[in-house]
Amino acid sequence: MNPANNSEQPKAAPAYQNHVILVGYLGRDPEVLEGRAVLSLATKKSWKNKESDEWQSRTDWHRIVAWPPLAEAVRSLAKGDHVLVEGDLLTSQYERDLQVNGGDIVTVTMRTSEVRARLVRKLEAKPKAAQPEAVAA
User: Fold this and answer.
1) Is residue 57 part of a domain?
2) Which of 38, 44, 66, 101 is deepest in the core (most CB within 10 A)?
3) Rg from Cα positions in the chain
4) pLDDT tens digit string along 63-90?
5) Which residue, 115, 55, 128, 49, is CA-closest to 88?
6) Domain membership flag for residue 41
7) β-pairing verdict for 55-66 and 82-99
8) DSSP characters for 106-117?
9) Alpha-carbon gap, residue 113 to 87, rounded angstroms
10) Is residue 129 situated within a structural domain?
11) Which of 111, 116, 93, 124 is nearest to 20 (CA)?
């Protein structure tokens, strides 16, 4: 944009957008259910604790749903594959009866989320760094 020409205005962001990008590893082989494929994807966040100077991490598990024709394409994936997933985040809730201590039944609201995949791409594994060979003295 030419600063001397103020007639061009920056474009505004969309009023609404639901777009998720996740990169992680499959926790199991894809499960095919009624034409759709369900993937279990693990993502991990790591950080260094400022107080202890030790590394800590947290793994999150995501339910990924692929509908045809993408469902057919992801059937060849397997547990441990490194993948990139793009899609939309969907949330829902439902009521469920649970038995608590003493045998009473309580109704609780369960909340779930899943990613409806638009793209699933298998990523190449990074080559492991060459290990130095031991030299006998």
Assistant:
1) yes
2) 66
3) 23
4) 999 999 999 999 999 999 999 999 999 9
5) 115
6) yes
7) unpaired
8) EEEEEEEEEEEE
9) 13
10) no
11) 116
137 band by pLDDT with thresholds 50, 70 and 90 = very low
Q: Which of 105, 109, 106, 113 is nearest to 94 (CA)?
A: 109
pLDDT per position as a tens digit, 26-50: 999 999 999 999 999 999 999 999 8
Indicate the average pLDDT of the chain. Answer: 89
Q: Give the range of the structural domain holding residue 52, as residue numbers without chain letter.
A: 20-122
Phi and psi, residue 132, nearest 5°: -65, 140
SS3 content of the chain, % helix, strand, coil (to 5): 5, 50, 40
Least confident of 69-73, 108-112, 129-133: 129-133
CATH code for the domain of 47: 2.40.50.140
